[in-house]
From TrEMBL:
Organism annotation: Capsella rubella
Domain F-box: 28-76
CDD domains reported for this sequence: F-box_AtFBL13-like
Record-given protein name: F-box domain-containing protein
Length: 459
């Protein structure tokens, strides 16, 4: 709701209230006096079943719901009754364009015929965003006829859970810009290739693959217009999966889970500006950091011991680096990144509470190798680093203090260094003395930058 709309609504309500008071009574239905466009906007923000129920309020409201451009239908159980109700509602709908339709159904078994009928009726209403969420407890995944998507108005498609994509040949989805595939099942490698060949102007892609087999080994994404891509693969059978990403226009990449996979290849990512890589372990090829060498912003969280970092890569555009410090040998990766990022301006380290980690991890954490300082002070510390942040720092090892001290002593352009710690629980009040000592030690460090402001925070 815009400021102008709110102003008009307030003005109308004040006018209605004033005229009612002059007549000696107070109106009980001021909202009906609002402009139709404003009422439709309000209705688009509430559950569709409640929107349809407003038709019983008065003559003014009887057909108003039929013009709402965003509809959402959710049901548990009877697919026949659900299909009947949704079809009836869609056939009664009068808006020239259906901006968004969300269909969610949870059942023991879902007949794909009913889903196909619903999708056909929806696309006949010129739907722009279509969301289908099917949760089948016992039956097979529901096959969705890909021919249903050959409509020029479809701009966003989001498929979730037990949806089976069987794309035996490319179709036409030239208007599609956003595609979300979350937990869906694919017929095979060819279906994946045909799917992306069907949407040549795709710009935003989200792929979440669950811990079950979906019949795809080589997941090939060829999308010349793709700008953002998010990948999350939590499969337990990951060692048989390979990814090939051909997206020359890609600007943002997010990989949040990729474990025990045989191979990942990202071709020609020279336009990449920002990347997030987390929980990536035991990948067959070791050049994953080499694919993101053009980025300006980078967030890393993975086990350095299991990823070989390409020492020859220079991150010539990188100005913002965020790293998580709760994985083993994280400082080895930090040293490499500092040496390889000559223009780095912001360094942010993020830790997790040490007392929340497992006993096995704590043992490994204390026994891992020592930190080796760079032979020469990295160029970024001498010329560019202005901001240093360390969140949730607990410093369970001496090496962590050494890293902080090293940066303060060598970052000659540093303007601000912020250290934040977790709140101390009553049973761990003994940590107060440790933290006070830590603060005093940092205060005593002779900083390379005379203008560096040291800040301590409690989160």
């Amino acid at each position: 709701m815009t400021g102008n709309e709110l102003g008009k609504a307030k003005h109308l309500m004040e006018q209605g209230g004033e005229s009612s008071r002059k007549l000696g009574y107070v109106s009980q239905d001021r909202i009906s006096e609002l402009p139709e466009a404003l009422l439709l906007h309000i209705l688009s923000l509430i559950p569709t079943k409640n929107v349809i129920a407003t038709s019983a309020l008065s003559k003014r409201w009887r057909s108003l719901w039929k013009m709402v451009s965003r509809l959402e239908f959710e049901s548990y159980g009877n697919i026949y009754k659900y299909s009947e109700n949704v079809t009836k509602s869609l056939l009664s709908h009068k808006a020239p364009i259906l901006e968004s339709l969300h269909l969610a159904l949870t059942s023991d078994h879902i007949d794909g015929v009913y889903v196909g009928v619903l999708a056909t009726v929806a696309f006949a209403r010129n739907v722009r965003e279509f969301v289908l969420d099917l949760r089948v407890y016992h039956g097979p995944p529901v096959r969705l006829p890909i021919s249903l998507f050959c409509f020029d108005t479809l701009e966003t498609l989001k498929l979730k859970n037990q949806v089976l994509l069987d794309v035996h040949s490319p179709v036409s989805m030239k208007s599609l810009r956003t595609l979300h595939l979350q937990g869906v099942v694919y017929k095979g490698d060819e279906s994946v290739r045909n799917l992306f060949a069907s949407c040549p102007y795709l710009e935003h892609l989200v792929v979440h693959r669950g811990p079950f087999s979906d019949n795809v080994v080589d997941f090939t994404i060829e999308a010349p217009s793709l700008k953002t891509f998010s990948l999350n693969d939590s499969s337990s059978a990951g060692e048989n999966r390979r990814y090939v990403i051909k997206a020359p226009s890609l600007k943002y990449l997010e990989i949040v889970s990729l474990i025990c996979h045989e191979f990942i290849l990202i071709e020609n990512a020279s336009e990449l500006v920002e990347a997030t890589i987390r929980n990536v372990e035991q990948i067959g090829n070791e050049n994953i950091l080499g694919y993101v060498k053009s980025v300006k912003r980078l967030s890393l969280d993975f086990l350095a011991l299991q990823i070989t970092c390409p020492t020859e890569v220079i991150y010539s555009q990188l100005v913002y680096l965020e790293m998580y410090t709760h994985k083993l040998e994280w400082w080895t990766l930090l040293t490499l990144m500092l040496d390889s990022s000559p223009k780095l301006q912001v360094l942010k380290l993020i830790d997790h509470c040490l007392h929340q980690r497992s006993l096995e991890f704590k043992k490994q954490y204390k026994e891992q190798g020592t930190w080796n300082q760079p032979k020469d002070v990295p160029e970024c510390l001498l010329s560019h680093l202005e901001t240093f942040v360390w969140r949730n720092c607990n410093w369970g090892r001496e090496e962590e203090k050494e890293v902080a001290t090293y940066i303060l002593r060598n970052a000659s352009q540093l303007k601000k260094a912020t250290f934040s710690t977790d709140p101390i629980e009553p049973k761990r009040l003994y940590k107060l003395a440790t933290r006070k000592r830590m603060r005093n030690e940092l205060d005593d460090v002779v900083r390379a930058s005379s203008s560096c402001h040291l800040v301590f925070e409690f989160e």
